[in-house]
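Budget justification aside, the reviewers requested a transparent look at the raw inputs and outputs of the sequence design task funded under Objective 1. We therefore reproduce one unedited record. The lines immediately below are the structure tokens for a 495-residue chain.
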């Protein structure tokens, strides 16, 4: 029987439910198996394997997803925007932030962990690639044996080589899977760097906001104490009631009470920043920078369709889809016969620890192994890999949708917070003017203390809200940079 590679591949892979065990073993394949195992046809089979072969391939499956033509908030964004670059944090104009990000990218424990995972993936690829090369073994031995009072000695030295023909591409598919996994790991490292820089920026801005809110609370306490002195003087002169004095004392106590929680939050936020930088939690940080001095960049969001090429986490998800396809190909190839070549050469002697009067041996062999029955283990492995592929496809779909939402949310929050900040500044200016007028009219006896108290509370709330709104605007800009990939590109992966 003449066995052609294309005929064999077609027969072996004709149907998805092809089975090599039990009743599913086709009669025609039995004849082919006998032909394969025939010693007379072995040289021809080896020649066939070396010259023809039919490596299995598996297409990469991607989710069917329609990308929007533009962002929902694109129309409301200013025309003058800046492109996203890989040092985006410099756009905020904060020298301490520049230093913090550089320090975190160099020393953060989380990034060191990710870097070691890249090293492990590189070694795994090297390990997988080694299976494509022949194996060499060197052995030596010497011994004595006594049988029926007859002693025999022997010494031998041999060199053996073995090589598995990757006829169906199983080993190559494993290498492809490892290579794709390495790419995914490198992309994960890049995603971790982006996440780390964004976390450092957000945490630093939170620390600045808390410091500013703490300063505002202390200033408000000073204002409340100043008004208390006025009320006390009027009370001493009989121009104010005991109720008015008690109300202002309560205001002072409330302002004093509001300081301690802010101090605790500030210490905790600075400790969190220190941990991100790999520092001791009690590390000191500069305190002279203010939120108002920071710039809020306006970012060019680009098109939604570009997002797939701009985010390292989506690139990692795409690479895992490629690895899944390669794993399926490897599992399918494992269903087919395996062919191994081996050769050996050695010398031996009938002496102990001596190679005098040696005899030489030379051997070469080939073997074919076909799993006839394994209880469905290999077929189950194929099904498992396909199930993992479907899982990864849905995970990729979810990641894309989440990325689109992150950009939309960041854009919407940026527009909203910009408008809110402008409104809060107008409210603050009016609150400051109202408090000045209320204090003046109270001193003159034109208004009661209640008017002053209301003006105080309005001013305190406006100052605190403005700091929070400024923080929200800065955070929205950081989130937008992160959602857009932070200027990442595949060409700089792993850097």
């Amino acid at each position: 029987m003449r066995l052609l590679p294309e005929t064999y591949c077609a027969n072996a892979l004709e149907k998805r439910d092809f089975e090599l065990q039990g009743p599913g073993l086709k009669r025609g394949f039995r004849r082919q198996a006998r032909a394969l195992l025939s010693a007379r046809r072995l040289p021809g089979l080896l020649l066939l394997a070396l010259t023809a072969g039919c490596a299995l391939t598996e297409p990469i499956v991607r989710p069917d997803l329609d990308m929007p033509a533009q962002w929902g908030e694109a129309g409301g964004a200013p025309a003058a925007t800046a492109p996203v670059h890989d040092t985006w944090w410099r756009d905020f104009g904060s020298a301490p932030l520049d230093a913090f990000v550089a320090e975190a990218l160099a020393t953060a424990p989380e990034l060191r962990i990710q870097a070691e995972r890249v090293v492990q993936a590189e070694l795994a690829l090297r390990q997988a690639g080694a299976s494509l090369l022949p194996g060499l073994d060197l052995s030596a031995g010497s011994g004595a044996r006594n049988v029926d009072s007859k002693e025999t000695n022997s010494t031998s030295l041999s060199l053996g080589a073995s090589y598995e023909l990757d006829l169906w591409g199983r080993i190559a598919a494993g290498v492809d899977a490892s290579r794709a996994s390495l790419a995914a790991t490198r992309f994960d490292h890049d995603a971790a760097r982006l996440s780390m820089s964004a976390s450092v920026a957000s945490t630093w801005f939170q620390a600045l906001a808390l410091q500013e809110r703490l300063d505002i609370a202390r200033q408000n306490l000073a204002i409340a104490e100043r008004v208390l002195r006025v009320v006390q003087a009027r009370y001493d002169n009989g121009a104010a009631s005991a109720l008015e004095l008690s109300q202002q004392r309560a205001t002072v106590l409330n302002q004093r009470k509001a300081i301690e929680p802010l101090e605790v939050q500030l210490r905790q936020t600075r400790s969190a920043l220190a941990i991100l930088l790999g520092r001791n939690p009690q590390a000191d940080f500069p305190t002279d920078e203010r939120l108002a001095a920071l710039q809020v960049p306006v970012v060019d969001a680009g098109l939604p369709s570009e997002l797939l090429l701009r985010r390292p986490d989506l690139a990692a998800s795409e690479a895992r889809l490629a690895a899944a396809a390669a794993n399926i190909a490897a599992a399918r190839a494992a269903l087919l016969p395996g062919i191994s070549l081996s050769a050996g050469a050695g010398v031996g002697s009938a002496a102990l620890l001596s190679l005098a009067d040696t005899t030489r041996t030379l051997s070469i062999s080939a073997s074919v192994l076909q799993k006839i029955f394994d209880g469905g283990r290999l077929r189950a492995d194929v099904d498992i890999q396909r199930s993992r592929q479907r899982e990864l496809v849905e995970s990729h779909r979810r990641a894309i949708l989440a990325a689109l939402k992150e950009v939309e949310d960041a854009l919407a929050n940026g527009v909203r917070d910009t408008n809110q900040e402008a409104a809060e500044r107008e409210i603050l200016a009016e609150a400051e003017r109202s408090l000045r007028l209320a204090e003046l009219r109270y001193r003159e006896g034109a208004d009661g203390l209640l008017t002053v108290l209301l003006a105080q509370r309005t001013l305190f709330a406006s100052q605190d809200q403005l700091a929070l709104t400024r923080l929200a605007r800065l955070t929205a800009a950081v989130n937008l940079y992160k959602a857009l990939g932070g200027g990442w590109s595949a060409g700089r992966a792993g850097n």
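The mean pLDDT is 83. The radius of gyration is 38 Å. Computational costs for records of this kind are itemized in the attached budget.
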